[in-house]
């Protein structure tokens, strides 16, 4: 039995996520616009979720998050959790008729990025709260900043990232629509 484009894409997602995490952590700073760069791993996870559904999207979100945390030095597991929330936000777009409408992938990118950013911020706030508990307060962790201004982070990082990722998704729609549809039972 020959392997189609859809099957090939499915099996290349995990190595592709590691490559995307490496590229995002190293080279994407060269295409920043106002200190915001596209979230390549997030976009790959959202596209995978739109094409293959929530179950595969959650797996790829977890793997992509681990890869992203390994390469970026962020708190281990925080990117996985945030990407999994974003995949769940995009999952309703996995229907044969709906993902071909321009609104579905664009809203998946915008809402998925907002969910990712807000979840990641909440994880950082939770870690800050834990680090300020009386029995942990004496423990010093190098490189941890304990002040994260929520509104400024939302205004200058999360919202511009949502716009940037939505524009990237707009450019990817022709490629996304070329992936053939099959039943979920085939995979």
Describe the 3D structure.
The protein is mainly alpha-helical and 187 residues long. It has a single domain (5-178), classed as Arp2/3 complex 21 kDa subunit ARPC3. It is 66% helix and 0% strand. It has 6 helices and no strands. It has helices at residues 5-26, 40-52, 54-72, 78-90, 103-131, 150-176. Helix 2 packs antiparallel against helix 3 (54-72) and helix 2 packs across helix 4 (78-90). It is globular and about 55 Å long. The two termini are 14 Å apart.
Give me the secondary-structure topology.
Layout: H1 5-26, H2 40-52, H3 54-72, H4 78-90, H5 103-131, H6 150-176
Helix pairs in contact: 1-2, 1-3, 2-3, 2-4, 2-5, 2-6, 3-4, 4-5, 5-6
Q: How many domains?
A: 1
N-to-C CA distance: 14 Å
Structural class: mainly alpha
Helical residues, percent: 55-70%
Short key terms for the protein model shown above:
single chain, 187 residues, mainly alpha, 6 helices, globular
Short characterization:
The chain is mainly alpha-helical and 187 residues long. The chain has 6 helices and no strands.
């Amino acid at each position: 039995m020959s392997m189609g484009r859809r099957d090939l894409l499915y099996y290349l997602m995990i190595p592709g996520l590691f490559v995307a995490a490496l590229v995002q952590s190293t080279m994407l700073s060269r295409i920043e616009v106002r200190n915001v760069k596209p979230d390549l791993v997030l976009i790959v996870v959202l596209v995978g979720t739109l094409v293959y559904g929530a179950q595969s999207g959650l797996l790829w979100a977890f793997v992509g998050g681990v890869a992203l945390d390994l390469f970026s030095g962020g708190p281990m597991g925080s990117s996985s959790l945030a990407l999994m929330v974003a995949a769940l936000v995009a999952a309703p777009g996995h229907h044969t008729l709906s993902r071909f409408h321009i609104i579905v992938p664009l809203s998946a990118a915008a809402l998925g990025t907002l969910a990712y950013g807000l979840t990641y911020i909440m994880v950082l706030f939770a870690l800050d709260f834990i680090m300020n508990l009386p029995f942990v307060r004496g423990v010093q962790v190098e490189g941890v900043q304990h002040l994260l201004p929520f509104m400024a982070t939302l205004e200058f990082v999360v919202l511009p990232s949502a716009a940037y990722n939505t524009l990237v998704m707009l450019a990817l729609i022709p490629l996304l629509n070329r992936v053939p549809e099959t039943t979920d039972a085939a995979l």
